[in-house]
Amino acid sequence: ALSAKNMNYLYASVNHIANKLIDDFIDLKEADLVSAYAFKLPALVICDLLGIPEADHDFLFETTSLPSVLL
Q1: pLDDT category, 45, cuts 50, 70, 90?
Q2: Helix H segments across 1-71?
Q3: Degrees, nearest 5: CA angle 60-66-70
Q4: Model-level pTM?
Q5: C-alpha–C-alpha distance, residues 40 and 67, integer Å
Q6: Three-class SS of residue 70?
Q7: What does the pLDDT read at residue 53?
Q8: Fewer C-beta neighbours within 10 Å, C or N terminus of the chain?
Q9: pLDDT tens-place string over residues 2-34
Q10: Most distant CA pair in the chain: distance in Å?
Q11: Residue 27 exposed, middle or buried by CB count within 10 Å (0-12, 13-18, 19+)
Q12: Which pLDDT score is estimated for 13?
């Protein structure tokens, strides 16, 4: 449901994921923003909404076709 509580959680979650993705490539001299950020952000948000643990994200991306193509 789109309650205030759920929206606050979603906002905080997306903000955390976005900041983590930026932190992952911020120290690099160059990065592909699309593959390092734009494709990963929605996939990771969906993982969070589905309750997939963060520890399983890499495994999920490596073993499924859609995230592999996107990443």
Answers
A1: very high
A2: 4-25, 33, 40-50, 57-63, 65-70
A3: 100
A4: 0.74
A5: 8
A6: helix
A7: 93
A8: N
A9: 788 888 989 999 999 999 999 988 888 888 888
A10: 42
A11: exposed
A12: 93
Distance of alpha carbon 61 from alpha carbon 56, whole angstroms: 9
User: 26 or 70, which is more confident?
Assistant: 26
Gap between the Cα atoms of 7 and 20, Å rounded: 20
Q: What is the pLDDT of residue 18?
A: 95
Rounded CA separation 4/12 (Å) = 12
Contacts of 30 (CB under 8 A, 6+ apart): none
Reduced to 3 states, what is the DSSP secondary structure of residue 24? helix
- Counting every residue written for the chain, the total comes to 71
Does residue 13 contact residue 48 with C-beta atoms inside 8 Å?
Answer: yes
